[in-house]
Amino acid sequence: xxxxxxxxxxxxxxxxxxxxxxxxxxxxxxxxxxxxxxxxxxxxxxxxxxxxxxxxxxxxxxxxxxxxxxxxxxxxxxxxxxxxxxxxxxxxxxxxxxxxxxxxxxxxxxxxxxxxxxxxxxxxxxxxxxxxxxxxxxxxxxxxxxxxxxxxxxxxxxxxxxxxxxxxxxxxxxxxxxxxxxxxxxxxxxxxxxxxxxxxxxxxxxxxxxxxxxxxxxxxxxxxxxxxxxxxxxxxxxxxxxxxxxxxxxxxxxxxxxxxxxxxxxxxxxxxxxxxxxxxxxxxxxxxxxxxxxxxxxxxxxxxxxxxxxxxxxxxxxxxxxxxxxxxxxxxxxxxxxxxxxxxxxxxxxxxxxxxxxxxxxxxxxxxxxxxxxxxxxxxxxxxxxxxxxxxxxxxxxxxxxxxxxxxxxxxxxxxxxxx
Length: 420
Prior knowledge:
Layout: H1 4-24, H2 39-46, E1 54-63, H3 74-89, E2 96-104, H4 109-122, E3 126-129, H5 135-145, E4 149-151, H6 157-161, E5 165-167, H7 173-185, E6 189-195, H8 198-214, E7 218-224, H9 232-238, E8 245-249, H10 252-264, E9 270-274, H11 280-283, E10 294-297, H12 306-318, H13 326-344, H14 352-361, E11 365-366, E12 374-375, E13 392-398, E14 404-411
Parallel strand pairs: 1-2, 1-3, 3-4, 4-5, 6-7, 6-8, 8-9, 9-10
Antiparallel strand pairs: 10-13, 11-12, 13-14
């Protein structure tokens, strides 16, 4: 394959940045309202009841959960809300009631292996997961046992190449979406300001250079150490390249400093930031807050959208009243996305092999909370890897406090190919 080297390069450097993203997503602003809805509103949002009455199908959920340094436990509530909603309103999986076995890795490699072994012992038909920090340990066990796993993102070498392992969203979103947007807007030059840790600055250089190069956008990377309060010198030096767009990748504290520097210098270029940059608490420290910043997001939270209203209602009824936000959204979307694909395929064989075959044969279906964009796990969504089910990304406008609106789906499929 002419682009085999390109494919190996991308596979080799992605996993660490996804782990870093998983650790910082809890800081991102959902732009969603957490106000309480009446029971009548909840019932209306959930739709017409269609209760599953058939024999149960056991699915597994593996989540980082609550560890010593992060708390992703709301992801579990989101997945449980999706399953409760599916069982009562979508007929489960083609009439079969869904049961969910949950295990938390707590960011421990040994616990991740144990969780995967628990799923094998329980004889689950499939596993769903978000963006696990220790994904490869899970993939190793489930791949050997031929139990399909459906991640929000799993872009390690194992995640991209192991049969039966799927990334249901665009695993390269933080690089492909900005590159596609720059191409769409006709920006000839772009600069990525990235927190200088191996899991971010390395991929920004290698993956970013590849994808922006394919978009025919001149690309420069400015790695800045964590804790740098004043980034004015680095931004001033970057201005020598006259970039039309700055992409920020880091946590909220890092990106706040970057935005302050850009505004101090009066930079007029478009500012694009990863959703991990955006935190309502941090907005007060930025002159003007996030107003005018565009955000690369993985989910869409539009309070007027029927999809969001269903999500919010499902959390109220089946997710212990968890407030709608990014972390529960990830668990909800990946679990409900799997159910949608299986029902679209009219699955009858609920064994692991049967569920995998059904998902691979399913037509395109809307991915939950993704602006109506579809996913399809037939191996053709992204030629870079048959395990990636979508090339979509989302860009939204941020208000001063970080609330997001005006979501736009961005297609990056032409950049995510193995061709040169």
